[in-house]
Design brief:
Chain lengths: 110, 113
Amino acid sequence: TQLLEQSPQFLSIQEGENLTVYCNSSSVFSSLQWYRQEPGEGPVLLVTVVTGGEVKKLKRLTFQFGDARKDSSLHITAAQPGDTGLYLCARNQAGTALIFGKGTTLSVSS
Amino acid sequence: EAQVTQNPRYLITVTGKKLTVTCSQNMNHEYMSWYRQDPGLGLRQIYYSMNVEVTDKGDVPEGYKVSRKEKRNFPLILESPSPNQTSLYFCASSPIRDNYGYTFGSGTRLTVV
């Protein structure tokens, strides 16, 4: 199983700050997905990135897939308390499983 | 509303007492899967199914059984639960298509005492 390493593991910031979380691997992936999980709920898909160098925006969230397709980042601009949650990156393993990183727990306080 | 429904949301049981966690999806997805989520270990796959009557083991299948008699349902069975199966369980479904995301249920928090 090819691992996905996420960093930082925990992040606690004030409302209005910017932040970036990272997802890295030694392997090349055909695509990568980002999910957000709120306490007591299941993960919810945010985005899928497919092409090396691809950048996708979802309101204040910007997702980037590395040129070599081994890494990805999620940047949040002007974080809000509603952004609080666990952010997970995942890759699809031959259509049989989603392999997840261990996630970044984000806490945004007002 | 397109969704994956798990029941129950919370369950406390005793060691050795058989239990079933149900999972149903209304999106006509071919693929369904069970995960458990534990602190420090993240989400790990237990079993998955590519279609009716087709199931296979994930990374942590020991102590669990599944069945897929109908496309919409994928129950998780613990024949003889043990305390190390105390965890948060998620069912997920997806079409079998490249780059499609999974839809997860809201989870079942199981405590085995």
